[in-house]
From TrEMBL, chain A:
Keyword Lyase included in the entry's annotation: no
Protein name per UniProt: Transketolase central region
Keywords attached to this entry: Thiamine pyrophosphate, Transferase
Family per similarity comment: Belongs to the transketolase family.
SMART domains per record: Transket_pyr (SM00861)
InterPro entries associated with the record: PDH/Transketolase (IPR051157), THDP-binding (IPR029061), Transketo_C/PFOR_II (IPR009014), Transketolase-like_Pyr-bd (IPR005475), Transketolase_BS (IPR020826), Transketolase_C (IPR033248)
Cofactor: thiamine diphosphate
Classification of source organism: Bacteria, Bacillati, Bacillota, Negativicutes, Selenomonadales
CDD domains: TPP_PYR_DXS_TK_like
Species of the source: Pelosinus fermentans B4
Transketolase-like pyrimidine-binding domain: residues covered: 3-168
PANTHER family for this protein: PYRUVATE DEHYDROGENASE E1 COMPONENT (PTHR43825), TRANSKETOLASE-LIKE PYRIMIDINE-BINDING DOMAIN-CONTAINING PROTEIN (PTHR43825:SF1)
Length: 311, 281
């Protein structure tokens, strides 16, 4: 097992802090959990705890960016995208200020804290805002590269990170290309498009399908916005069926973004793996993923179903 | 203590303020939309800031060393636009494009549209946080730049204001000076009746701000308060400016209905003549 994406975030943020003097970091009393505490220890003069006040977290971030700084602001996804949505929209995205929102503990795999802390709407909320870039890294290395990209890119970025450790998928030589899907396996019968922690499960599903004689392409879409239309259209043309997988509501997230591209360009049968318009609950992450049908087995079953719908 | 303004300087500033009020009435009438009441109440504060205090240059609106201004009560955009035009950031004729399609003068200030706007605002409660962020950035840069912001009194009902209030004192942002445009009225009526934020000075003092109370239409008092704020170390300053909503236009003064209503063209002519008479006095 590799690191949780939040752990990789803490490490790379400290490294980038040494490289870019303009990086400042803000947290809302969760720095030990979001891992911004690593940066805080290395650069205490550039770390500011705003306390339990997420609206002000975003507003101060906006002001720092307007003053020429590169603020990384962190809290749990629920309180970033959810509670402070309007501050992100009006104070950060409308003026296109250079604020990086690194939101941790996204999705059901927050686990035991339960539904109040399980953000399953954040991708939907964030991608609907003009000027916003939305990135969901799949593993530690992709997180390092995505955070580095965010630091060097001029404009608002929302990066969705997870609490639990995830398997390493990418080696140190991995190149992150903003807005470009990463093909992890090629296939001709179906394409599985996954993001975040579901990429590992998608890989696993492809192996299961191979054993059943089904050839599946696997695409990792780390940048939900702007989305890689070309890769999606090509997948539809080459394989004729799509399954999307995300640890997020099926409403408004990756599945919706892919569906938007498909219906306007090359409609093919599609199935969505995600949280089906319901709240989560307390439990260990693996039990939650199983109960809410976010496993490799669920993906493989959806792949078989979508293939059966092909004309 | 900094020197007082001369009587001549005060008279000149009062002329600017009258001209700004004239522009506010004109532009809101032309747009047939906008917020005249709270623009007129803040005219003397913005005049004093932009013409007697702030280090800003219309020919170099992005200068890193400049002082910053955040209009937290963004609906009072007309007073900011009129002040910036008076100062020379853009031609005064452009004021008449307020709120029109393709205009740089958006209904609420947009920093990407118009030179001289340091922060986009409009959704109440957010400006003080941005101002605090700007003040913190200036301090990190060892810049002498100071940050000014104007909040509405009704705006104090927004919880986010108090998050920012705590932040600014915790981080000892003494390069931040805020004003409350205390005109006592919000859209639905007197602030004391809608949802009272009173007592205002005591609240800011309890949040450990340095608090100064002034008549917000007394240019000399505004200037003095700004000078005092510059001497206060280790905490931000809140200047609670007692004002009159609609100040300068008799028919508008102290009437909540003029919060977000444009005068008719006939009313406009009357109001402008009143402002002319005031200036002549």
């Amino acid at each position: 097992m590799g690191l949780a994406t939040r752990e990789a975030y803490g490490e790379i943020l400290k490294e980038l802090g040494g490289k870019y003097e303009n990086i400042v970091v803000l947290d809302a009393d969760l720095s030990k959990s979001t891992k911004t505490a690593v940066f805080a220890k290395a650069f205490p003069q550039r770390f500011f705890n705003v306390g339990i006040a997420e609206q002000n977290l975003m507003g101060v971030g906006a002001g720092l960016a307007a003053g020429g700084k590169i603020p990384f602001v962190s809290t749990f996804a629920m309180f970033a995208a959810g509670r402070a949505f309007e501050q992100i929209r009006n104070s950060i995205c409308y003026p296109k200020l250079n604020v990086k929102i690194a939101a941790t503990h996204a999705g059901l795999t927050v686990g035991e804290d339960g539904a109040s802390h399980q953000a399953i709407e954040d991708i939907s909320l964030m991608r609907s805002i003009p000027n916003m870039t939305v990135i969901v890294p799949a593993d530690a290395e992709e997180t390092r590269k995505a955070i580095t990209f965010a630091a060097e890119y001029d404009g608002p970025v929302y990066i969705r990170l997870g609490r639990m450790a995830v398997p390493d998928l990418f080696a140190a030589d991995y190149t992150f290309e903003h807005g470009k899907a990463v093909q992890l396996a090629d296939g001709k019968d179906v394409t599985i498009i996954a993001t975040g922690i579901m990429v590992g499960a998608a890989n696993e599903a492809a192996k299961q399908l191979q054993d059943a004689g089904i050839s599946a392409r696997v695409l990792n879409i780390h940048t939900i916005k702007p989305i890689d239309k070309e890769a999606i259209i090509k997948a539809a043309a080459d394989t004729g069926a799509i399954v999307t997988c995300e640890e997020h509501s099926i409403i408004g997230g990756l599945g919706s973004a892919v569906a938007e591209v498909l219906v306007e360009n090359s409609p093919v049968p599609m199935e969505r793996i995600g949280v089906c318009d319901t709240f989560g609950e307390s439990g260990i992450p693996s039990a939650l993923l199983k109960k809410y049908h976010l496993t490799a087995e669920d993906i493989a079953a959806a792949a078989k179903k979508v293939i059966s719908r092909k004309k | 203590m900094a020197e007082k303004l001369t009587q001549e300087q005060v008279s000149q500033l009062e002329k600017y303020a009258q001209s700004i009020r004239y522009s506010i009435v004109q532009m809101v009438t032309e747009a047939q939309s906008g917020h005249p009441g709270g623009s007129l109440s803040a005219a003397d504060i913005l005049t004093t800031l932009y013409f007697a205090e702030m280090n800003v240059n219309p020919n170099d609106p992005q200068a890193a060393s400049r002082d910053r201004f955040v209009l937290s009560k963004g609906h009072a955009a007309p007073v900011l636009y009129a002040t910036l035009a008076e100062k020379g950031f853009f031609p005064k004729e452009e004021l008449l494009t307020l709120r029109r399609i393709d205009s740089r003068l958006q209904g609420h200030p947009s920093m990407k549209n118009l030179p001289g706007i340091d922060m986009s605002t409009g959704s109440l409660g957010q400006g003080l946080s941005a101002a605090a962020g700007l003040a913190l950035a200036a301090r990190l840069d060892n810049s002498a730049s100071r940050v000014y912001t104007v909040l509405g009194d009704g705006e104090l009902e927004e919880g986010m204001v108090w998050e920012a209030a705590m932040f600014a004192t915790h981080y000892k942002l003494d390069n931040l000076t805020a004003f409350v445009d205390f005109n006592g009225l919000q859209i639905d009526g007197p602030i004391s009746e809608v949802l009272s934020p009173l007592p205002i000075p005591e609240k800011w003092a309890a949040f450990n701000w340095h608090v100064i109370q002034i008549d917000g239409h007394d240019i000399q008092a505004i200037y003095d308060a700004i000078q005092t704020a510059k001497t206060i170390k280790g905490k931000p300053t809140m200047i609670v400016a007692q004002t009159i909503k609609g100040k300068g236009v008799c028919e508008m003064e102290n009437i909540a209905d003029w919060h977000g209503k444009a005068p008719s063209r006939q009313q406009c002519d009357l109001f402008l003549s009143q402002l002319n008479e005031l200036e002549a006095q």
